[in-house]
Amino acid sequence: MPSQGLTTDVEFTPVWLILENAFTEIHTKNASKLSFEELYRNAYKLVLKKKGEELYNKVVAFERAWLASVRSLVVHTLSAPLLMGDEVGGRTLATTNERREAGEKFLRCLKQAWEEHNTCMGMLTDVLMYMDRVYCTDHRKQSIFAKAMGVFRDEILRTEFRQEMPVLLEVLRRVVLDQIQMARDGEAVDPFVIKSNVYMLEALYRSEQEVEDEKLYLRDFEPDFLSQSRDFYRGEGERLLKESDAGTYCRHAKRRIDEEGDRCRSTLSETTTPKIQMVVEDELIRNKMKGLIEMESGVAFMVDNDKLHELGLVFELEARVDPRKPELTKAIQRIVMEMGAAINNAAIAASEAAPTTEAVAPAEEQEEGGKKAAPAKAINAQTLAALKWVAEILALKDRFDAICRQAFASDQVLSTTLNRSTADVINSFSRSSEYISLFIDDNMKRGIKDKSEAEVDALLEKSIVVLRYVADKDVFETYYKKHLCKRLLLKKSQSVEVEKLMISRMKVELGNAFTGKLEAMFKDMTLSEELSNGYRKHVAGMQRDDGGEGGGAKAAELSIKVLTSMTWPLEAFRSGVDSEGMEGGNGKGGRVEILLPPEIRRVKEGFERFYAQKYSGRRLTWQNNMGDADVKARFPSSRHAVHDVNCSTYAMLILLLFNNDDNARGARLGGKEMTLEEIEAATNIPMDDLKRNLQSLAVAPKTRFLVKEPMSREINAGDRFRWNEGFTSKFMKIKVGVVSAGNKVEGDRERRETEKKSNDSRGFAIEAAVVRVMKQRKELPHAQLLGETITQLSHQFRPDVGMIKKKIESLIEREYLERVEEAAVPSYRYLA
Amino acid sequence: MAPHYEQTRDAANAALLTDLSTLLTSEEHTDLKIKLGDRVWNVHKAIVCARSDFFAKACKGDFKEAKDGVVEIHDDYPEVIDKMIHYIYKTEYSESDTELAPVLFNVRMVAAAEKYFVKFLAALAVSKLDYFISNVGTAWGSKDFADAIAEAYTTTHDSDRELRDTLLQMVVAHADMLFRKEFTEFAHFQDMAAKTPSFSAEVAALLAKPLEISPILNIYYCPGDDCRESFRSAITDGQRVKWTCDYCGWEDEDDYSWWQSYKIAELPVVEAT
């Protein structure tokens, strides 16, 4: 029986000698003549006979000795450029090329040593399989392969090979870092040989425990790589900020980030990618963003020169490092605010530069911004300034919208910032509401003429766009009502359709409450039309019944507008100069009734009767100051027998004074003369209106129906007037200019009144809101009441806290509320 | 009735095994020779290497075997290797046609299975051995049994507890006879025991076992509120114990150190088995 002495003992040494010889052959690449079975069997025998430990130690010792010889081979490739001095000194002593070649030679040698070690250990592991599985497992020993890797680390990388010299691990690190630096400087280095060495560092652990994050790569290479990169990019970033422009910088930074990502893939380890990119982002972006944005060629420059692409780059860069993009956001906000302030200041300057005919208002002017009051009569220039302001604000917004869309990928954060900045610009301008309303007014009167539907639509949209930003919607409403009122009553609007379209847009944007009164105005207009028609029919019917009595040529026609009081801001028609107190919708009290000649009074009373039939319990208040009249006039010297004169109601009343039925045919009125005071007494027209109308009738050359004594521009007390028999005009139709017509920028007096009015209405709104809140809550601390009140009102205007406090005080006085004495924080209680 | 697909699958599995056996006997497509002395087996690398790590390593890499397509093995019994190759192809072998006693044969099979890393073969051999010695009443007294023990303790590795425990169980059961000097029919066994100290030591340890001091049973009281029910537990450091109180229904599981605060007394008790 071939019983094989397995039951008997084996001697270690002869068997080991066989194995040792074979291992040498394997390491010298002569394995093909070796029998695997023989080697396996011998190793198996030793382990089976409990000589596993001896075998294990012998193998380790063999590898240690072998690798020591490999180390000297590797050390041999270290040439002068790599050995000269330390990291700093060595650099300068050899050319880049020499250093690169020397480095590659070293890296190649080390790579080869590593790869061969792996191959040989693979074969040894196969041969020693029984030892691994039985001895190592039972005795909790590292596998021989892992052990041999540790031996490689200790013998090759960590053993001091010459005094005063760093170990090879250190040399390797420096060489790789040096090669990477060369690559960054544009040298072509061999990525594969570096990558192979990185694989080695990734496969080796610091200790026998093989803890995952104790890999040599992670502990002995990566931290140095990152810190060296940090230094490099810090320096590069600083240099670039000084030397190049912002666009170039952005492109460079982006390229560097991509490059480092690629480098990790091709040369180092993918696991490093996020870390190195973080370093580059830190040094080239995060820490430099502020500097980059504030560079001379920075964001402001890019905006000025429409460098959308470069703005896009800046955006992309900052977006990488912070989703909030704080620096870019701040910069954009600043630029918008600056540009907006320029527009606002230009508007103010334009209004101030306008010719001044009135003294500057006293300093009690309480408008914000320390602005000087605008002269009341510099009207046209101001209107222009208003139009210009709106156009410029729109242009500003369009411009940044385009930037946001094209360069910032319509980013949410930046859009929000833009909107907020635009709102700030608009709201920091105290006349924004008025200017926007004027802008719409101008377009309604002139702008939309001959425009296509789409163009009109765009105009409306623009108005809404700006309007959306206005915080004090109530102020805007006041102006808009005033302007709309004039447009409607003076028939200045190009198209009622467009007006209504505008209102419906506002309704969508600002809500029903906002447009309710505006819509009521339109309703009044329609109703008035129906009333006028109805009345005309009524009169025609009466004339038929009366058989023409009392009518005939003298029956004046009437076109009437019945306006609901409170809805219409009729004070808009007051002349800017000291007029007679409050002359609002029903401000009848204290006013002197205008004296009408009988033929006019008949018409008036006729309509009042007619109206009273239709609506009982309503009182009509006549706004004579706002009417106009068509009068037929005969002038003996004029080439037309009859002139159709269109003039204000007041002018008509004045003219009628000089009419005389008895002498009508001959127009021989020459003798009748009246003084200013007599005219006033005969008509009761307020002096101011009277003077202005007389100016039109007796001073304006084209409509000088009256002759004034003495002849001068100004109307003064004691002036005398008589019929101008010599009047002549080549036109049959003559329109008497009406002073105070269009919508212009307010004078400071008007402005103060508007403000006072809006303050009053705000006061009511605040009181109402406070009461609403308290009624619901019964008891509420002060701070919370303030908060809720502000929230409730925010869609109308920004309430002033001081005003809210005052209103609360006043509500307490009037016993709507009371202070809660025992409360820890100041609180109020609602008194039902 | 098993579902239809299971029947199909079982049939397919059976066919696979048949086909593999046919491959072994027909020697078609063989690409590897296994030699032992003058015996040669023509086998398939793909199959042998898949089933044995030894052959897998031998056939890969730069060694002579990979180049020549011949693996020459040594120190083995041809009939054992033959059955091992059968097992590789068929997952089964039969020892009935060997000249060797089944005990000895199966011990050798375990050794071969361990040497050549054939999956599950050692376990199969041990269970066959166990079956044999448990069912053949006199097996424990045979000379082959003693020889098998000797080989088991020298040709398989120490950590193979399955084989050793199977043998030891039988030895301990009959220790009163086997080790008695006056029973000369067991002289061969006694001689083997004297020459195989690692075996004798294990027998001694097993025989001493009933003399062991039982674990200390301490008395603990119920942690439930106001419940003074008590119980005994042998819990030692590192263990956890779960206990349900019959009296108050308290139930929880915790570790040794926690239970110590509920300990009433330590009562070492020696219990005879």
Automatic annotation (TrEMBL), chain B:
It comes from the Eukaryota. Residues 30-97 form the BTB domain. Pfam families: BTB (PF00651). InterPro entries: BTB/POZ_dom, SKP1/BTB/POZ_sf. This is BTB domain-containing protein. It comes from Elasticomyces elasticus. The lineage of its organism: Eukaryota, Fungi, Dikarya, Ascomycota, Pezizomycotina.
